[in-house]
Amino acid sequence: MRGMNMSRIGVTAWFVWMGLGSVLIGGEDLNRLWYAQPASQWVEALPIGNGRLGAMVFGIPSLDRLQLNEDTVWAGEPGNNLPEGFREVLPKVRALIRDGHFKDAEAVLMEVIPQQGDERMNHGMAYQPVGDLLIEFPGHDNWDNYRRELDIANALCSTRYSVDGVVFTREYFASAVDQVIAVRLSSSEKSRITCKLGFSSEHGKHQISVADGMLLLDGVSSSMENKEGRVRFQARVMPAIEGGSLEVEGNRLAVKDADAVVVYVAIGTNFKNFRDLGGDPKRLSLVPLSKVKTRDYDSVRADHVADHRRLFDRVVLDLGENDAAGKPTDQRIREFFDGNDPQLVSLYFQYGRYLLIASSRPGTQPANLQGIWNEHLFPPWDSKYTVNINAEMNYWPAEPTNLAELHEPLFAMLEDLVESGGDAARELYGARGWVVHHNTDLWRIAGPVDGGFYGMWPMGGAWLSQHAWQHYLFSGDQAFLKRIYPVLKGAALFYVDVLQEHPNGEWLVVSPGMSPENAHVHGTTLCAGATMDNQLVYDVFSNAMEAADQLGVDAEWVEEWRSMRSRLPPMRIGRFGQLQEWLEDWDREDDRHRHVSHLYGLHPGDQVSPYATPNLFGAARQSLEYRGDESTGWSMGWKVNLWARLLDGNRALKLIREQLTPCTNIDGYDGKGGTYPNLFDAHPPFQIDGNFGCTSGISEMLVQSHDGFVSLLPALPDAWSSGSVKGLRTRGGFTVNMVWKDGVLTHAEIHSALGGVCRVRSHVSLVCDVPMNPVSEGDANPNPFFRKNPVRDADLPSAGSNPVSQHAIRKTFLYDIETIPGSVLHLRHAMEERGDAPMIVCE
């Protein structure tokens, strides 16, 4: 589609959505990462996965490497991490914080939750690799005409090259349907596939063998801190050859002179749930292979592709294309910041969706800090679930980018945490409900880790529970709400019991708490009533109240939660016009910390609005300005979302450019993030949350629905002047398709799954094929899925300018449109309807 006419493409897309065509916007060849050389390091390899099984594909001609993962291979064994003596010192810690002795409070906490684990406790277990499948090809050292690619639309990875005029092709995929990883080896001439298959593993306890024509790797996960490694796993390789022969050579399999070979990999473990290791890894590795053994490769491949496309094809994004789209992906990343490659943004957006499909499926573990891909026995930050931002970021794209069912593993983990977190609430705080601090793992630990400075944050459950409520707002699923209500209620009950009265006698605050990982002027993180804590507890109470009302239960608790919510501290604006990170005005103008936790109320929360709380909105912008753009990869991904919520598409795109800057630091954290050659996010090192955060941010630039309405193109940057998108989801069960030209919305189509009022906000006046009612600013939306909880705007500081006045909000048009389930709204720009030139009116 090089040199395409965007106007023509936009109109074509509109006709497709109207049922007058069946082609997709853009070519499928655009949904590919490709390279002209093999991977020389892990962050150049290409990821495949089925939610449970993952592999990094190197594509090396002479000795190919598939680095294998299975989502329940973790160090350790069942058990929580509840420190002894915590409950006894808690009153003293609270008293020290109340009296302003913050460092002393930290010192007391460090006696019971030290920075490093000891014989009494641990800091969570490490997610671990299974090992490597190695495929050796004698005589393939001198190759040419090389191409390695990952087709994310079909979830197929491939390598192609020539040796002495013979073309060799390898195709790799991870099937969720058949629970296997498949590799097909073929060539342009018969009898040319000769290779050896072997395993390697870094696990101290492992054995490699051959039995019944299959290659086996049996192993046991590592011991760590005070837990014994007890996850047993078995990986099996079953080659199916076409022609030639299969022989055993020690602990390897040798294929000689075959026409083609299909290599199937299956992995099983003894993990059944976070308290039960009674599974049978042998059976779990044998059963998938016994099923695919009776089928031909083409049918296994076709089922895999159809299953993947059922999810992937729901959203199509076209931001334009030029000649840059034809270059190798690593070259495009190097040239992106100073160049013009809008299609790379579309590819990066879809890559995030691909990674979520590949690392999170119903019945699997949630995507962890590296999704499902990890080569180290003891990876950075143990590749756990860091729930003071990172695990949540992984699932920000699930609802808006039409992958709602991929949220399910997170909800299953929440239900586990109600149990383990209930133990933590009772034993550590003497409270009802449940709590998790800033880390958890396969064993669902819920106690604090990493010492008082980082770990004394009893808010992980508060943040995680937001995902369950948001899923309900997007889906309207009453059965799900009934199932998940104990999660929401338990989170609220915990704060009923642990909130402390502020010395002013008016507020209720979390103490001890913190603004995650960021020290204030007293040299520690510990405090009472950090802004993020207050915002999270506000949402916890609000969600539980709404859910109870919807279900018609717990009326007495609703009143209690409403009363306590009214006593939470308000957000405050500080001396340089910023949204305060703490109750006290402790912010520093030179603070460049990667966490921007006090902006949770802007995103992913909905407490800061340009229309309902303009002073807070301006203060949030001021805070983000002072914090700066350059940061770790995941932090820049969060900032894309924040600038989108601030309605500044150009600044959001600048952050995307920063995010897509090449990173050469593989192993260590140096404060500057970016992107690796395989499009993985660099903290550095690799963390997948930046990928997911940026995908979410791009969707927020195009459609928002958190503020009581569906906002169309709220933060469109100038560089995306013409384009189209299909399939983005909003709260209230709406699905949005749009076309825009010259920065102006021309057509939109909104599908209603649940019915009810669809309130639409647009920068241009619209006409529709059904009646539309103009709405005055501030009128409540009658659709309950868009109900807004009251948040008081902050008073501006007596000295200083109004930060809002410096950034006027663009004029918009607001409409209510009645829908019924299954109906479709067709919206058009009113000026286009009259044939006039479109105009934007700004205040």
Task: Compose a concise summary of this entry.
The chain is of the alpha+beta class. It is built from 19 helices and 33 strands.
Task: Explain what this protein looks like in three dimensions.
With 843 residues, this protein is α+β, with helices and mostly antiparallel strands. 30% of the residues lie in helices and 22% in strands. The chain has 19 helices and 33 strands. The strands form 7 sheets. The chain has a 9-stranded antiparallel β-sheet. Strand 8 and strand 9 (180-187) form a beta hairpin. Helix 7 (342-359) crosses helix 18 and helix 16 runs antiparallel to helix 17 (649-659). The chain is globular, with a radius of gyration of 27 Å.
